Amino acid sequence: MTTEQTFLVRLAERLPAARLRTDADTLLEHGRDWTRLHTPAPSAVAFPESIDEVQAIVRLANETGGHIVPSGGRTGLSAGAVATAGEVVVSFDRMNHILGFDAVDRSVTVEPGVVTQTLQEYARSVGLFYPVDFAARGSAQIGGNIATNAGGIKVIRYGMTRERVSGLKVVTGRGDLLDINRGLVKNATGYDLRHLFIGSEGTLGLIVEATLTLVEPPREPAVMLLGLSGIDVLMSVFARLRERVQLSAFECFSDRALAHVLARGLSAPFDTPAPWYVLAEFDADSEEAVAAAMEAFEAGVEAEEVLDGVLSQSETQRLALWRLREDITESIAHRLPYKNDIAVRVAQVPEFLTEMQALFAAEYPQFEVIWFGHIGDGNLHISVLQPADMAREVFIAECERVSEHLFATLARYGGSVSAEHGLGLVKKPYLHYSRPAEEIAYLRAIRQVFDPSGVLNPGKLFD
Amino acid sequence: MTTEQTFLVRLAERLPAARLRTDADTLLEHGRDWTRLHTPAPSAVAFPESIDEVQAIVRLANETGGHIVPSGGRTGLSAGAVATAGEVVVSFDRMNHILGFDAVDRSVTVEPGVVTQTLQEYARSVGLFYPVDFAARGSAQIGGNIATNAGGIKVIRYGMTRERVSGLKVVTGRGDLLDINRGLVKNATGYDLRHLFIGSEGTLGLIVEATLTLVEPPREPAVMLLGLSGIDVLMSVFARLRERVQLSAFECFSDRALAHVLARGLSAPFDTPAPWYVLAEFDADSEEAVAAAMEAFEAGVEAEEVLDGVLSQSETQRLALWRLREDITESIAHRLPYKNDIAVRVAQVPEFLTEMQALFAAEYPQFEVIWFGHIGDGNLHISVLQPADMAREVFIAECERVSEHLFATLARYGGSVSAEHGLGLVKKPYLHYSRPAEEIAYLRAIRQVFDPSGVLNPGKLFD
């Protein structure tokens, strides 16, 4: 028997058949994420229901030489949870309970399979707010959010998933169960392992429970959508708004991005066309706050930076304006875009964007490029659309060629080759553009500490 | 020659004599921190002026088998920067420059020897705010703040030092220079080493540069000081205020703590005596905000939880009220108190406090115990005063005996044996109460990765 077969036999002794699936549909569905670049080929999918079971699975992998791919909502965009080589996928679909809430701590304790939106709704039901938010909220799971340090659209105000985690239970690659930080605000007792697991993409341990701190809800959020004269005025529009209002989001997108969303039947925000748009969300809980936002708008018009704009007058209109930004990904999904998710320091955005546009005009003249991003965090999403008359392989090869140019430029800025999507399999070849060899050597040694047998998510992040 | 002598000889080739000091005064002053439990005995004190020099020192230590104790403002309370065994102290006193500020990123880049208060003042000069704040602000250095993940009095609103660090340059124990995260908001490219170095107390690497994110200043902060009927009403007073105003601090102290401060000539806040006091700071930028605070006060009086109170009417009065809380440490410093700095989850504070008071009444009947703390973070400082007629050694031994009881109780709560003071030498024997053996094994392995020869801060944290 191969090691994976031995692993499976031993797993079958531990888990009932209904929770150790090998049917083709389950293998396909749980063997992949939202990327479509690899052929999923797990040997089985395990559905543990308890921490004990997760620990048993990891220990069996160590004993048999088996391999594990942890799997949350499978909405990843870097193939971090894709199983391509006979691994056993460990799905947290059945560990999806909210375990407790403490009103004084304002913290909620959850199993890893709780869906992000479920947590958001739960937070609202107790008068609080879970601010990590992104388009995949309806499928993504908290365990995956933590494993990738999910960011999204509210980072400018509330930070990444990292900022929310006050406690973490983890089964390490060696099979130890660690109960880290236990919901404490202050705890200066040696290295904070919590932050090592956050963003580790399932390579150091499996997250089996988390305690998350909720925040005060935003106060009567409103959205202002503005059409800008060009990309060069982006930061000046940003500065004017940030000075005057309490921003909870500052997003941007190009006219081409908007065109794809409008093609699906949404209404244009206003008649004036603009090459770039920004969506700013802010607390509109007083007349002063709304007046301050209007003042920023008028100053922008005066400066000939803002061509037109609209301010949401109701919750319905606020959500409708958000769709112009949030539906971009879905509107181009059928085109299977090649995606990059990069970041530079916020202050570097205009210069970097200008350089990127020149690079793309030179290297991608035949491709349609869709830009959008969380510009208040220095984070840009770049989606390249495949021309109808080009073969998939040729297209991917061409995109990878241009990515090398893009990342070489990014390295000059000290930027990140993956702002919030992680490395997985897709960005792994480009890690060296963001982290030098001597730093990667430390990452490798840390992985060795937690998973010396290499049972967790083999081949992801780095070799 | 001993290894430390060889190390010194090689250092003398690299550094001018004026920056490699061995005179008795320098050895004494730079060989200790604010604790007075160990005899300082470094072999020399090095004052590097550049990252290159720091790297050279660490490399020489590796080559010769020498040992290094990093030293900031030496205000530590756990002997994390004390040199007791012929180590070379590396002081960052001469690397004390503010290197740059970016208004768009709102970030400031500093050398590690910049004093906390200097950074606070710099932030104010650019219209922003550096919120990490504590009584030792005038001496503590940013490098030490980061190495201990300093907390203090504004954590409830702004978090710990950890939350401020967007970039870190570190010379590891192996002598590698790492440039980590470079000021990015989003960066999902493998394990975040930044958070491993933050709070590592100089055992993994020496912090040689940091980029820190500043925040918006609080809006017209005011202080309300309240006298409470007892410790049992603390959390209900907290909840009432937190619901109504934007808190930036929520501190508590006992009548005995206040008595020591008043003995130094400060005025009592009001005539009504109370067993416990809280100091709440909040944004008083509108009549509504002030009215909301008054409403919380009145509801507290109505509920017979609040006995009396005062609201600052000016900046002078706000600062004067703060002194009643902040001067506690100084007012008892001449008594060389035995200190504990512990934390539980915020929600557990009342139950834990009750249990602690019973323990102390039983075990410490002859000692005066001074309580104060950052109660909004679940963090308590407990200072035990030595009776005049008791020998120092007997007193310390007795305190250590009671500490074991205290920490055993704390362990039942999942609390922290060091909330914000770190472990150093003083709390190292108690680490096992907060972190189980299997977790400490991982900490030890991580230290081995970054400092395989054990040149950095030997004997600190754990063996």
From TrEMBL, chains A, B:
Entries under InterPro entries matching the protein: FAD-bd_oxidored_4_C, FAD-bd_PCMH, FAD-bd_PCMH-like_sf, FAD-bd_PCMH_sub2, FAD-linked_Oxase-like_C, FAD-oxidored/transferase_4, Oxid_FAD_bind_N, Vanillyl_alc_oxidase_C-sub2
Protein's name in the database: FAD/FMN-containing dehydrogenase
Family listed: Belongs to the FAD-binding oxidoreductase/transferase type 4 family.
PANTHER family xref list: D-2-HYDROXYGLUTARATE DEHYDROGENASE, MITOCHONDRIAL
Pfam families in UniProt: FAD-oxidase_C, FAD_binding_4
The entry's keywords: FAD, Flavoprotein, Oxidoreductase
GO molecular function annotations of the record: FAD binding; oxidoreductase activity
The protein's required cofactors: FAD
Organism: Plasticicumulans acidivorans
